[in-house]
Write a structure and sequence with these properties.
By secondary structure, the chain is mainly α. The protein has 14 helices and three strands. A hairpin with a 2-residue loop joins strand 1 and strand 2.
């Protein structure tokens, strides 16, 4: 009987991390979607579990087939994906499905499945930057790298920022890491960051001046103010502050109820449940059920994924492979720690799901593609290592 390792290739530890995160997500989604099931599915608690299992199964299939593709093919594909993602981002702004005053979703005609175009744009930009930076290793003048490198970053982030600031910020941060690793002069990176801050400040100023009732900008302001707290005093001010910070406060209460060892899917009947417990506040839900120990174990899995990705990048002989692995892994880690940071109150509410733990959607599929790309690079790295060992053994 063949071992499962004969079917999967690349870094086995990353495969185990994906497997463990998948098992954890099945249990956590079933536990955290109870209220959602009673609200929308007449108490059918298995509905969202089966939906998540389908998404998860397809996601694992995507990882498998992606990791079989030679990573070099993603270089040319990145150009096509970037060209496709730009009009899709524009379409999302004009006719996307609305969620909390933000148009983030497009519905695929015929099958009724919705997806976030920002997920496609993020993957496209990361692979595109890896391609361009690989081809432009020597230092250039700022004007020579602006159009091929800086402009696409501003274009993608600019089209996303209005409807999803946190995603735009994470994409921009990942891009800056790639520029640094891609040996773009540090002063040019500072220029880019300065231009981004200035452009965003100008955007806020124009919106506040021309559209004073803009709901999205007001949502950003409310979230930052709620996160920072209020200097006002008095009973009424305290009540208003508590209401504005409702989600974060409830998430913290949920974490506290988990204690060191957690409730283990039972225990305290009066333990609080955070809003979006199955998505944006999945980390708070995880600690509620598994405690501080479970929360630390979750962090360990993501750090282990990042560590193994860095090892793959170090062993890679191609600059494109290095940038591709770093870009995909950094993006996942930034998103994971953004979700965790919101749950414990380190960051304002962002709406970022916890990769491979939050309830499955098409974002899980794009995460699967990123993991498949990392494994594709690792497969080639380990195959070359095996070939060299065989040659050395043959010579001896």
């Amino acid at each position: 009987m063949k071992s499962i390792y004969s079917f999967i290739h690349g870094d086995k530890i990353i495969w185990w991390v994906v497997f463990l995160l998948s098992l954890m997500s099945i249990v956590m989604v079933y536990k955290s979607t109870g209220s959602l099931a009673y609200r929308f599915q007449g108490g059918n608690t298995e509905f969202y579990l089966m939906k998540h299992l389908l998404m998860l199964f397809l996601g694992l299939g995507i990882i498998y087939f992606t990791h079989l593709v030679k990573y070099k093919y993603f270089s040319r594909l990145s150009q096509i994906l970037l060209i496709i993602s730009i009009p899709l981002l524009l379409l999302t702004m004009l006719a996307g499905q609305s969620e909390h005053s933000a148009d983030r979703w497009l519905v695929i005609p015929g099958i009724g499945v919705s997806f976030q175009t920002s997920d496609l744009a993020k993957l496209a930009l990361i692979t595109y930057l890896a391609r361009v930076l690989h081809k432009r290793q020597e230092g250039q003048k700022f004007k020579e790298i602006f159009l091929p490198i800086i402009a696409p970053i501003f274009l993608v982030c600019g089209l996303i920022v209005k409807v999803n600031f946190s995603t735009a910020a994470l994409i921009f941060g990942t891009s800056m890491v790639l520029l640094f690793i891609g040996r773009v002069p540090f002063k040019y990176i500072l220029y880019t960051v300065g231009m981004a801050i200035g452009s965003f400040a100008l955007f806020i100023l124009v919106v506040i001046t021309v559209f004073p009732d803009n709901n999205r900008v007001q949502t950003w302001i409310n979230r930052v103010e709620a996160w920072g707290g209020s200097d006002a005093s008095g009973e009424k001010a305290i009540e208003e502050d508590a209401e504005a910070n409702y989600q974060s406060n409830l998430a913290k209460a949920t974490i506290v109820s988990g204690g060191i060892f957690g409730n283990w899917f039972g225990g305290k009947a009066d333990a609080p449940t955070p809003p979006q417990a199955f998505s944006d506040f999945m980390y708070a839900s995880l600690i509620k059920e598994t405690g501080f120990i479970g929360g630390i174990f979750c962090i360990f899995l993501y750090l282990l994924l990042f560590y193994r990705s860095v090892r793959i990048a170090v062993k890679s002989e191609s600059t494109f492979a290095v940038l591709l692995v770093v870009g995909c892994s950094i993006s996942l880690i930034f998103q994971a720690f953004s979700n965790m940071g919101v749950a414990v109150g380190l960051f304002p509410v962002t709406g970022q799901p916890l990769p491979y733990l939050s309830m499955g959607g098409t974002s899980l599929w794009f995460t699967s593609i990123s993991l498949g790309i990392i494994l594709s690079v690792s497969k080639e790295v380990y195959d070359k290592k095996s070939d060299k060992q065989e040659v050395a053994t043959g010579n001896n």
